[in-house]
Amino acid sequence: MNVYFLGMCISFIIYIIIGIIISRKVSDANDFYVAGRRAPVLLIVGSLIASYVSTGVFMGDAGEFYSGIFSPMVVVCAIQVPGYILGAAYFGRYLRRSGVLTVPEFFGKRFCSPALYKLATISALITMVVYLLSVMQGIGTLMNAVTGVDYNLCIVLALIAFVVVSVFSGARGVLITDTIMFGIFTIAMIVATFVITGKAGGWYQAVEDLVQNGKQGLLAASGNLDYMYATGPENILWGFIYGIVWLSACMVGPWQSSRFIMAKNEHTIIRAAIYSGIGLFVVEFLVGISAVTVNLFEPNLEQSTYALIYASMNILPTALGVLLLTGVLAAGVSSATTFLSLIGSSVANDIFQSKKRSISIGRITMVAVAVLILLLALKNPPAIRVILWFGGSILAASWMPVAVGSMVSKRITKTGAFLGMLAGFIGCFLAKMIPSLLGVTMPVFLEPTIVGMILNVLFLIIGSAATKVTEEERKIREDLLKVPESEKNPEELSKTKKFLKYSPLTGVLIFGILFFAWVLPYMMAIKK
Amino acid sequence: MELLVSALLGAWIAVMSILSYVHINKEFKGDRS
Predict the structure, then answer these.
(1) Residue of A22, A116, A90 whose CA lies nearest to A341
(2) Rg (chain A; Cα; Å)
(3) What is the pLDDT of residues A434-446, one digit of tens each?
(4) Which of A64, A158, A380, A427 is most exposed, with the fewest beta carbons within 10 Å of its own?
(5) What is the ipTM of this complex?
């Protein structure tokens, strides 16, 4: 047993203890499924970022930054930043107003359509199971690489930790542990970035060395042209398209938008959304800086996804290495608790449509789902990023246009929504599968998500044009658009308006970060 | 080129934030039904 494994096991024990302590405070089904709908800004921000950031970011994204597509990855990270505030404005607030327990339930309620409800449930469950599987594989791969302990045993240990948290403490526990884990991996990443770049002579010196001695185009806007696409514009376009995919996931993904259902009020949703966009960018940018700097210590890693693992074990002091690896593990576990909790809630509420909404039904389904996921995880090979992108793409293509359109447009009917969601799902799936079966590479602009989204919008329009909005559908939409009296507290309104008024400054802030941490040192290095 | 990419990304975030602001503000003012 090495010190890293010890650190990981201790963190598991701490999460389990916290989960058990919180479980004593879970008094009813409302507490268990939606944290009593009274979560403050801090818990919503912590859970939004922690459930988004998983081993996929610390391993998959880190590998891409390390391999030389720093600039396209920065584009992905920045394009997705407004996803939270757009999600809060056009979807999240209506989710909370509707009083539903799960996101698929919203679609069913908004369009008075059991068929749409079922379709949304199926697509959400497929996506979340895929995600949970990939997160578990990421955790297993990480623990195995670091400790040498058997991959399957690592998965079982991690599963025990996040099943205990999710099953005993429900949504309330998941929000609290997510926020703790968000704190752990953010602090670990900030300190690690300073130490890694410090050991390379400081970030500006590191940029100079990377430009002179690193891989071709490592920090250039075009990216490394030997790695992905052969031209700079194609690489940037790839970054833009994947940025839109992840922006959509931030807007409507069930593991993201469901956090808004748990918020104390709509003001909490709006403020949390603004903070989360900035927080997510900072975490991902730090991952990028650290991973790309690893090139100066070891430019030929066999597996680029191990860039931060290499840094933890070979560049950082042991104690900090343990902290960073525990942080990466925390990122994986926090996403897993959210997914398991959501899958359990969805099976209990959307599949069995339990009228009692009891805690025990939720707990039983979570355990059953965990056993099923474990069996699937033990049989599947680790392939973190590919699976993750598949899940995100399908959801963006099938949900985004319908979710936003459901509240923005008064002309969308249940038939249009159903056909749009189905066409987006099938279109994205086929556009992803067919080229890989035929062994051909499609042009970047025919990315499956874009194909799926276009089909979604097309069928949404055709289906809605061919049918009429019923009186019931019209009334539900109008009711959802009315701001509840409880949200009209003058003090809260004035505070939220201030937040919104200054939110465009987020763009200035992100530009400032990019300018001083990327553009300026890169330009100085090129001139030398 | 790097400067242009950064500026466009900053502008994208600012424009999307303004869109959200306008949408929410209209609703709070009671302009939507």
Answers:
(1) A22
(2) 22
(3) 887 788 877 878 8
(4) A380
(5) 0.93
